[in-house]
Design goal:
There is one protein chain. The chain has about 280 residues and is mainly α. The chain has one domain. Helices cover about 65% and strands about 5% of the residues. It is built from eight helices and four strands; from the N terminus they run H-H-E-E-H-E-H-H-E-H-H-H. Strands 1-2 form a two-stranded antiparallel ribbon. A two-stranded parallel sheet has the order 3-4. Strand 1 and strand 2 form a beta hairpin. Helix 3 runs parallel beside helix 5. The longest helix is centred in the first third of the chain and has 30 residues. The chain is globular and about 65 Å long. The protein starts with a helix and ends in an 11-residue tail after the last helix. The model has no long low-confidence stretch (mean pLDDT about 90).
């Protein structure tokens, strides 16, 4: 008999506590992050990306919040989630095997180019007699490959995350693939075109991409933490409308900001700069 009142009281406390925590976390992050809108975006990228200047696109002399690879990954993931949100809505099944095979190839390309790029970076910073210089680098990395392999990984990440999201949220989800060949082909074509525009480094293109990539990064963190919150609170598979998601999304937002703020604080105290890691170039 005492369980229901105590549960109800706990829910009321959480409904007040989560918004208060969100306001405090947001205020703390805003005061800690660099000044200006782009400075805030830099602080998001700073938590997940090495931000090496030579591996980034630039608005004039100013680098974007994320490196070329992370820019591709997170803007394409954000764009894919937006498209799926409009097209697929509550669809909760994974894509067909053929699409999954292509997504796996995207993942392999991302990993292969990333490892080769990392080896190339180590060889450029290690002493001449270091064993690192004995590791072969298969080719010289470049930002074109970083952007395209990152974009492929972003599509793959979002295409898997979206059905998982629907499987976790809804009381009744739609039993159909969240991504079909038509939508997949349109997404790939659109992202290839956007990538080609990004490579021009035209400010008209890079400004919205800077926002989309950085806010896409934060959005993915919010989604993951919102899912974790639902599972902890045992509220997964109980939602019937988008309005009911306000509290878990706000909780996910708070936890995501706290993670970003913590990493920013630790990294800034360790390196002393909001730019890339000192001593790493090329």
């Amino acid at each position: 008999m005492e369980t229901q009142p105590s549960t109800s009281t706990l829910q009321k406390i959480i409904r007040w506590l989560v918004p208060a925590a969100a306001i405090i976390a947001f205020a703390a992050w805003m005061s800690f992050a660099p000044e200006g809108a782009l400075g805030k975006l830099d602080a998001i990228g700073y938590a997940v990306c090495h931000r090496i200047d030579a591996r980034s696109f630039h608005l004039g002399e100013r680098q974007l919040p994320l490196c070329a690879r992370c820019t591709g990954e997170f803007y394409s993931a954000a764009l894919t989630l937006i498209v799926l949100g409009f097209v697929s809505r509550k669809s909760a099944q994974f894509p067909a095997r053929g699409i999954l095979a292509v997504l796996f190839l995207f993942f392999l390309a991302f990993g292969f180019d990333g490892v080769n790029s990392y080896v190339y970076l180590l060889k450029g910073t290690a002493p001449a007699d270091s064993f690192v210089n004995q590791i072969p680098a298969l080719y010289a990395p470049n930002s074109v490959l970083r952007l395209f392999t990152g974009s492929g990984m972003g599509i793959a990440l979002a295409a898997v995350l979206y059905p998982v999201l629907n499987q976790t949220i809804w009381q009744t989800a739609e039993e159909k693939p969240a991504l079909n060949w038509k939508t997949f082909g349109a997404l790939v074509l659109a992202i290839v075109v956007i990538n080609l525009l990004i490579l021009t480094e035209n400010p008209i293109v890079l400004y919205p991409i800077a926002y989309l990539s950085a806010l896409g990064t934060l959005s993915l963190l919010v989604i993951v933490f919102s899912l974790i919150w639902m599972m902890i609170m045992k509220s997964d598979n109980t939602f019937t409308s988008a309005r009911q998601l306000a509290l878990p999304i706000l909780a996910g937002f708070t936890l995501a900001l706290l993670l970003v703020l913590s990493i920013d604080f630790l990294r800034l105290n360790f390196t002393g700069t909001w730019s890339g890691f000192p001593g790493l170039n090329g």
